[in-house]
User: Fold these one by one.
Assistant:
Number 1:
Amino acid sequence: MPDTRTIKRYGNRRLYDTASGGYLTSQDVVDIIRQGYDIRVVDSRTGEDVTKPVLVNIILEEEKLRQNLLPVSFLLQLIRLQGETLQDFFQNYLTASLEAYLKTRQEFDRRFREWLNLGAAMSGLGSADADAVSPVPAPPPARLAAKRPARRQSKNQSKDQPRRQTERKSRRSPS
């Protein structure tokens, strides 16, 4: 279970991280959450838990920047279904669906890594232990350019080909 970081929100809407002892931007809060921490935001004056409004505000800011997180049709339905039905939907179905998606994605990533390790081991690039396979480092771009051969011409094509075609055409045409 993730650790919970306590953040204080002051009257001027500034956020203060009690763990690091510094002020945070909303992007800093997003980074903390993406690092795996849960957060709890409390009003500095009253001690009231204001986590939900702060998170909703962060989602709205992200929506302004990306303009693709929540489709308009979803937002319209959200407004239409105000009440107990919507609350039940969010608490049960949406949360369970998101958790199932995350578990499925983790399982896919795990299996894909196993597949890559198996492929590397079978190709002779890996060691006896498939988990110890390390990727082959790519050469730096400058070395790649130096090793790149000059553009080859096909056997039927030479530097003189356009001239030869012109000569052939001139031979064919009756003068």
Number 2:
Amino acid sequence: MVHIYNMSAGINQTPTWGVTTSGQPFNDLDTVGATNLNKISKVVIGHGEVIDSITITYDRNDGLAPLVQSHGGTGGNITTIELDSNEVIVGVSGRYGFVSSIYGRSSIQSLEFALLNQATGEMRIEGPFAPGSGTPFSVIDTVVAVAGYVSTSGTHYIQALSFFTTHTPVV
């Protein structure tokens, strides 16, 4: 089950983009724990025709080793986004919808990340990953965790995503 976090907890959840009526849900905020979140230090995207997988490395406040959460299949090209100690993800955009070559199922078709270096004010964009022509979505806010759904039959891929942010989400 994907929980909804609210302003009183200091963390908000964006809408979920994609299909949520099937597949296996995941929620990294529940796994890492809101009080242990420090920042995202690495994002690994598996991508080809769609987003096959997403792996996030979370640095923690409790001094323990970073926690790595991986979701999806093993297909596609792998791209690693390393965030330096001053960088945070301040925006994510993408596309979702049905793709005929994956049995007409819905998936996250593309992703792109905006990173801000808080020390220098410099921005950089990573992506887009996968070609995507479906319905666009975006969030402009500091992203601290992800949730979503992974397909459970055939080739595994990301079929829906939601993002946890530290401010009121802009969608």
Number 3:
Amino acid sequence: MHFRFLEEPDFAELQALERRIFPGRPEAFYRTAPAALRYYARSGHSFAAVDGERLLGFVLAQAVWQGDRATVLVTRIAAESAEVYAGLLRALIKSAYDANAYEVALLAEPGDRPELDRALADAQLADSGRRLHTRVLGGRGARGETGGVLE
């Protein structure tokens, strides 16, 4: 298994993998639209886990500048095993460090994916215990949607 930047020929498989790992979610939940993947492919912090020709997982992340420092913010991490999660997190942390972005953040529901929980603990990503407050604007907000923000 190796980890590499996203490539356009991966896009359909990335979409299928995300929907397989997170079935039945509202459309706004999914992050693998081609326009989004083109952006993340250029971020320097998004990776695909590949074994031969088979895509096993991916992480979508970007640097968010805060004036005096950068945080690499993960929008989506999806994988088929704890081993793949661990490898994706190693690639992500190395890319953040190499870019002088000394903070990595992602939103994860404890217990939702135990294999991710283990990989996060092994990679020393701490649970801050904070809650995410969201408001969805526009037509989606008018329909009462609250999800899809950093999910």
Number 4:
Amino acid sequence: MQRKTRKNFHGHKKARGLALLEILIAIGILGLIAAGVATLASRTFEKQDLKDIQTDMTDVSIALQQVYSRAAQYVDTSSLSVQEFADSKAIDPSVAINPLTNSAYLFSVAKVRATDTLDTGFVLGIDNANQTACNALITGPLLDDADYITVMDTGGSIADQTFDVAGTIDIKNTTDGINQDIYDPTIVLTLCPSATDQNLIVIGYK
């Protein structure tokens, strides 16, 4: 009777060990699933941010063109951002914020040609874009909507832009049209120079 009890006791210990191993395996599987879900969610949020930016650029540019429709030129602002227009209700505040930075999009007046005397254009800046987001934005719908697109390092000044002077890359300008490099997949990968969140996309409208 005593031997049988000991045998059963050892059997219970073995069962406990297997149960613990199964729990550890289950935790590992759940961790892998959670990591996959987090990655997928991150990509989904990034895609939504890019869509929001594209919509914002269209809405802001149309609103600013309407604001200045009766003037001969665009007028610079002291803050170099669209926040002043949002504060004055000239544009909807909901489209003034860059979802990548949670700060207002940059703004400056611009000359369409370097020889112009009046600022008949303006530029909007999207800063702190990583390389993937930057490439997606400059090859997406903005290419058709904008009159000028260039990319520079975040922290650079978007003031004094002219649409016929090359930046890091000019995709569109008033004299040469669309830069054909945009259709070369190998070059598109190099359009945004920074692999980190240091790309500043400058988009011009007139």
